[in-house]
């Protein structure tokens, strides 16, 4: 067999790359309009190809993302379009592409990589782990939404989808600053990933609808993005994809709006944070139900020291972490974390050390808690981390805690 080589896919071969992707995913989403969209997305990615001679047998693309982390943001490789030819399975093609990605992350100064998985059993062995989780909510809209607080009474406005990024972009940016796990959205991202004319998964859905709330001429206090769908009897469902609000009263007004749309009997909201305010604001929890909890963004820490120093910590910390990492051996070893005050939080200085470890954990476990989702004490309790100094896990957990749970709804 010819040895495999990993190199950048030239622009002239991107159509071949899409053919491979559609082959692997059983021909799904290869209509002309979607193919054009996918081609444009690939053009904005770092596209890694696995070649056997001149034959393209593997594809892995990476968006150059900026991901919000506690107290700031870091460069992140957003992995997508992962495809291996069915004739070349179990030959190390994916492993080779991932290894090439790690080299490119190091060269580009990206301490993090992230993806949404199609098969959850694959990516753990490469060091990825869910770092945010989400709910799907279902709201009975056949009767008025009962709320425990009074909704904001400022006016609502329907905004054309093509104008929406300029109108609501600042509100999304403000939300990113408050919550880890959020992707920065430029005009390209808004158009291709958030507000495309057609929904890639369901042809029966309407074009995107965007409604804002706030005083005329002022920055919106909040917005909701949704699509609608009708059944054979003309009854409708509103699918909420994005809702941001500067206050609980604004959120209440937006939820009240989507549940009061004429002909809509049901509202479904995918990808809501686990600390979604509506679950507390609802006066009748039989009207608002959680139908699904799922792991959302899978994170990989590619550079341990840079990632740890790149976020703000909520409490002082001085301990030694031992990290195991078979995929990026340069990460493996012991790190001393010593914090210093930085505004309302703390920054840590990270140095390599030969001192005894207070806590040992794998690279997957580090990713699970990095954004503030899973606490170190839980990892110790279930046997996925080892505490050598009593109280070390609680100390790390306290320092990693965030006011709001991390949340991601931007699929890529």
TrEMBL record:
The keyword Acyltransferase applies. It holds the Pfam family Acetyltransf_17. PROSITE patterns: GNAT (PS51186). Keywords: Acyltransferase, Transferase. The keyword Cytoplasm does not apply. Acetyl-CoA binds at residues 82-84, 90-95, 118-119. Homohexamer; trimer of dimers. HAMAP family: Eis. NCBIfam families: PRK01346.1-4 (NF002367). This is GNAT family N-acetyltransferase.
């Amino acid at each position: 067999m010819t040895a495999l080589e990993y190199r950048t896919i030239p622009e002239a071969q991107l159509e071949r790359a899409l053919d491979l992707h559609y082959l692997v995913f059983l021909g799904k989403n290869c209509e002309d309009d979607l193919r054009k969209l996918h081609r444009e997305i690939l053009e904005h990615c770092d596209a890694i190809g696995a070649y056997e001679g001149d034959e393209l047998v593997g594809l892995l693309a990476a968006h150059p993302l900026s991901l919000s982390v506690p107290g700031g943001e870091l460069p992140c490789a957003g992995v997508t379009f992962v495809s291996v030819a069915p004739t070349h399975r179990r030959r190390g093609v994916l492993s080779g592409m991932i290894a090439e990605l790690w080299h490119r992350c190091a060269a580009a100064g990206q301490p993090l990589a992230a993806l949404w998985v199609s098969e959850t059993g694959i990516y753990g062995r490469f060091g990825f782990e869910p770092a945010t989780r989400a709910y799907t909510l279902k709201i009975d809209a056949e009767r008025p939404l009962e709320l425990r607080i009074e909704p904001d009474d400022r006016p609502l406005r329907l905004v054309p989808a093509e104008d929406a990024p300029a109108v609501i972009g600042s509100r999304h940016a403000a939300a990113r600053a408050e919550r880890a796990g959020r992707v920065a959205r430029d005009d390209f991202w808004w158009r291709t990933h958030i507000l495309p004319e057609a929904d890639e998964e369901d042809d029966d859905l309407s074009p995107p609808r965007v409604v804002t709330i706030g005083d005329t001429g002022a920055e919106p206090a909040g917005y909701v993005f949704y699509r609608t769908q009708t059944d054979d009897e003309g009854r409708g469902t509103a699918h909420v994809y994005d809702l941001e609000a500067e206050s609980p009263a604004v959120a209440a007004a937006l939820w009240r709006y989507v549940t009061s749309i004429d002909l809509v009997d049901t509202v479904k909201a995918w990808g809501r944070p686990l600390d979604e305010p509506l679950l507390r604001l609802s006066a009748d929890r039989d009207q608002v139900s959680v139908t699904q909890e799922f792991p959302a963004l899978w994170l990989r820490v590619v550079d341990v020291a840079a990632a740890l120093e790149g976020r703000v910590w909520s409490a002082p910390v001085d301990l030694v972490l031992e990290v195991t990492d078979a995929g990026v051996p340069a990460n493996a070893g012991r790190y001393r974390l010593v914090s210093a005050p930085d505004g309302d939080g703390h920054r840590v200085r990270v140095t390599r050390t030969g001192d005894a470890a207070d806590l040992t954990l794998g690279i997957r476990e580090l990713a699970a808690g990095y954004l503030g989702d899973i606490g170190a004490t839980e990892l110790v309790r279930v046997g996925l981390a080892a505490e050598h100094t009593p109280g070390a896990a609680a100390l790390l957990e306290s320092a990693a805690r965030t006011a709001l749970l991390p949340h991601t709804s931007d699929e890529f």
